[in-house]
Amino acid sequence: MNSEELVDILRLHERLMTGATGGRKADLRLKVLSGFSLDGANLEGAAMAGVDLSHASLKKANLRGADLYGANLTSAELQGANLESADLRGARLSGANLFDANLMKADLRSGQFAYAARKLARPDMTIEEKMRARKVQDSIAHTDLKGASLVSADLAMAEMQAADLTDANLQKANLTGARMTKVNLRGANLSETNLSQVNLKGAFICGVNFRGALLIGVNLSEADVVATDMPSDLEALPSDVRTKMLAHNLWIRSNGAQGERGNFENGNLQKLDLTGANLSGMLLRGASLKEAKLKDALFILANLASADLRHAILDNAEFDGANLADAQCEGASLKGAKFVPVESPQAASGGLKQWAPNLKGIQFVSADLSAARFRGANLVSANFERSKLDKADFANCAMDPGLADYLRKNGALVA
Q1: CA spacing 20 to 30 A to 310: which of 57, 169, 288, 340?
Q2: Dihedral pair phi/psi, residue 80, rounded to 5°
Q3: C-alpha distance from residue 394 to each of 369, 399, 408 (Å)
């Protein structure tokens, strides 16, 4: 198919969509459109089963309800595209870029050989198209999303049973209510992803990054979890805490446009399991997190001034740019925790501002800080008495005279 033919098909399809006379539904079944530019094209409800759109550009294209059964979308550019309710069964999407795409209620289940034959058959098929149809039928056992970028994509209620998401990037994606039974998530990135009410029954979860992900009511029965630190499911939290966590997650994902910043100032979060939770930007001044489970939690730019973190488990937690002035961390486990500066955009100037961790007056008495990392932190009046400091790394930190020598004598690296 040449570009002139495609333009004519798109023109007639647009007439159909707008109700103008002479319109005709686009039929691109088994057509080869590899590398074509279809940015912003309106292909809503189009017949596109078996189409080859590999390496094509479909940025902000309207593919709502389109039939893309067995389509080849390998390395396609689909940023901001609307694929709501699209039929993507058996499609190949490896390496595709679906940043901020809408895949609500999209069907990403496996395809079926016999059904594909009916989908692709046409009386006027050329020999080449018959050969391509056979190739499609042979490759639809699983929807292929290997290495695909689905960052910030909306996959709410999507049908993804048995899809291959090996090494896929789903950071900050919305998977609320998605059906993901028997999916392959080997090496996938699901950090800061919303997994509320997701069905992962029988899924293969190996080496997956779930840091900061929101898990509520997730079905993990029969799932094979290997070399993966799973966040806690917030279903077990008190209802008021869970409600605030949900609103805070939405606040983070929408950059403040929706939801509400979590405010637990002077609140009681003692002994709660918040493993892997995203508490970035949260207001926790004076809050009690005593004996809480917070391994792998994110506290980026959070306010924890005067918070009670005694005997909390905070291994590998990230406190980039956080305020922990006068916080109580006696007996806390902070192995591998990170306290480094972070940059954030400033609305007024349009520039970036660097926020250094503020640990002035923090009490690390008897805390385990083995292999923790401190960069540019304010450690004035900080107390490290009896703390474990083996391989802790301090660089460019403001501290009282004599503290550097104390840290070195106890196994820390100080630059």
Answers
A1: 340
A2: 70, 10
A3: 11, 10, 10
Tell me how long the chain is.
415
- DSSP annotation of 234 reads G
Q: Give the Cα separation of 308 and 297 in Å (integer).
A: 16
**What are the boundaries of each domain within the chain?**
263-415
- Our CA angle for 317, 318, 323, nearest 5°, is 115
Other CB atoms within 10 Å distance of the CB of residue 79: 21
Determine how β-strand 352-355 pairs with β-strand 342-345: antiparallel
Separation of first and last alpha carbons in the chain: 64
Neighbours of 13 (CB within 10 A): 23
Q: What is the mean pLDDT of the chain?
A: 95
Of 74, 69, 20, 70, the C-alpha closest to 42 is: 20
Distance separating alpha carbons of residues 281 and 278, to the nearest angstrom: 9
Q: If we measure between CA atoms, which residue out of 409, 403, 351, 345 comes closest to residue 377?
A: 403
**Which long-range contacts link 159-165 to residues 24+ away (Cβ below 8 Å)?**
159/105, 159/106, 159/107, 159/108, 159/109, 160/108, 160/109, 161/108, 161/109, 161/110, 162/109, 162/110, 163/108, 163/109, 163/110
Measured distance CA(332)–CA(291) in Å, rounded: 8
The mean per-residue pLDDT over the stretch 310-322 comes to 98
User: Do residues 231 and 276 lie in contact, with contact meaning Cβ atoms separated by under 8 Å?
Assistant: yes
d(CA 294, CA 211): 11
The yes-or-no verdict on residue 349 having pLDDT over 80 is no
Cα R_g (the chain), whole angstroms: 26
Reported as a single tens digit per residue, the pLDDT across 142-196 is: 899 999 999 999 999 999 999 999 999 999 999 999 999 999 999 999 999 999 9
Res. 114: pLDDT tops 70: no
